[in-house]
Amino acid sequence: MDDFYFLLKTKRYTLTRLRRMVTHLLIDYREAHASDIRSGCPYIRVLGANAAGRRHLSTLRETATLPIITRYSHMKKAAKLNRHAASAWEIELRASAMRGLLCGNDVSKGNPEYFLSSAMI
Questions:
Q1: Other CB atoms within 10 A of residue 84 CB
Q2: CA distance 29 to 8
Q3: CB within 8 A of 37, min separation 6: which ones?
Q4: How far apart are CA 58 and CA 14, in angstroms?
Q5: 8 Å CB contact between 116 and 96
Q6: Ordered alpha helix ranges (H), 2-115
Q7: What whole-number distance in Å separates Cα of residue 106 and Cα of residue 76?
Q8: Domain segments of the chain: what residues?
């Protein structure tokens, strides 16, 4: 991929811009997704937490105005209630699946987003 990017690189199209464009193509990111996300973050996604972080999350859950997502089941509930959350989650799933494919991970068992709990990390 690096050779491909360097062949395309110009003053107008920097490496960062080219990589972003290819990523958007791979995950089918469209203007509709961008406009959904521009309206504000629809949820708080926890990617990992240690013991101190989990204590902080328990207090944050009581005061946060956005849903805090640590499990797939939480996201399913948020996506049903909020179209913007569903759109953002769709992009997250695509990006996660594409990363798994490109990194050579075993994707035969499905997308890890569906069965991993980030709060337990």
A1: 19
A2: 21
A3: 84, 87, 88
A4: 43
A5: no
A6: 2-8, 15-27, 31-38, 51-63, 72-81, 83-102
A7: 24
A8: 2-120
For the stretch 72-88, pLDDT in tens is 788 888 888 888 888 88
Give tens-digit pLDDT for 15-55: 999 999 999 998 888 887 777 777 788 888 888 889 999 89
Using a CB cutoff of 8 Å and minimum separation of 24, what contacts does 65-69 make? 66/41, 66/42, 67/43, 68/43, 68/44, 69/43, 69/44, 69/45
Alpha-helix residue ranges (DSSP H) falling in 64-121 = 72-81, 83-102
SS3 45: strand
State the pTM of this model.
0.68
Output the six-digit token pair for 89. Answer: 């989650």
DSSP-derived secondary structure letter, 44: E
CA-based nearest residue to 65, from 44, 36, 88: 44
